[in-house]
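Hi P.,

Sorry for the delay on this. The queue was packed all week, but I finally got your sequence through. Input first:
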Amino acid sequence: MSEETSPWETLGDLILQQNTVAATDFINTLSPSETARTISRLSARQQQMLLSILGPEAAADIIEDIPEVQAADLVEDMPSAEAAAIMEALASDHQADVLAEMDDGASLAILAEMDHEEAEEARKLLAYAPDCAGGIMISEFLFYNMEYTIQDVLEDLQANRGAYADYLVQYFYVVDNFHKLAGVLRMHDLLFPAREKKLSEIMIPSPLSVSDGSSLRELEDFFEEHHLLGVPVVDARQRLVGVVLPSAVEEAVNKRKTKSFLRISGIVGGDEFRTMPLYLRSGRRLSWLSMNIVLNIIAASVIAMYQDTLAAAITLAVFLPMVSDMSGCSGNQAAAVSMRELSLGLVRPGELLWVLAKEAKVGVINGTVLGLLLGSVAFLWKGNAWLGIVVGGALAANTIVSVSMGGMLPLALKQLKLDPALVSSPLLTTVTDMCGFFFVLSFASAVLPKISGL
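Then the structure:
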């Protein structure tokens, strides 16, 4: 490849030639991030042709390197039989993630074409919430009945070595006749005892496990305390249903943080990539921006009510954004603490009054200090004590309101089944702007003769 030729141009030429071997070899030279970038720059037709000529196994390798949203868009546009073959080649957790991003009709059609056992396993994983142990566990693990002997296990491993080759085998799990988790075996536990020994005699009984409903926070805490390579997952009946790897927990936590960041930034509807359809991307952003226009109009209407006061003391215009912005920062601090405590279970949505009592005290102290600082600046600048009182008093009052509301708003939104991360920021910003403008202009109106002409 010449320096002037981009990787997607090179791959595009190989796709056009339908040179499967060369295309596969070229993709293998790319890192996962380079693969994702290259695939995203191909046209939709080139992407479909690539998946078709590569075959299920190689196509699955590509699917694992690109975001699930893009992978779902690619696979669901393929004939169901071809898509099913690719999905069967994916690891169970990744398979479920991609299927979950598809339209219901497409995912059902693909599941209908998949191997019956594979499809049933995928449906079980899809039934779990994506941010719990059941949603991120893998089903490719080895387990044996406690009545098996070491010889039985070794014969099974030998007979199925091809099928097990892609399994991430760290432990062997032992179950009873009701498929309940009974014990665990390490690899070397099979090497030294006599082959006629039963697993029940050599297993580590009552192993650590997690519930299939365990949250990401609980899983993070588990792996921080227990440095294991994987943990078995059991259902309500203590039956073994999967295994969670620490890398899967880390990946899920990073996904959640990314989604929260996107929501806070105003990207609604899920992940956005620049390769997505133009009108879809535009519509998602406009839905957020349009709401912000309405909220800002509400805040601006307060200024319109006091335009005569503002005209008589134009210096107030300098302090209006200061009061609203500084109070907004204080409110966002309180909101961040509430969202953090909600995620950790340290506070419940119904404890509004308890949070208000705690935050109001902080608001009074911080509001007083910040009000004195800004009021002093206003006095030193214009030499007018009344201006300092107006500006400082407005900032103090607005800080108390914003801190109190910032602490309670996430709890109230959670109680209403709304996402605090998505809704708290615009509401809090609007309220602090509106109250800040109101406090400054109403205080100034009360002493207007003292500050007129400034």
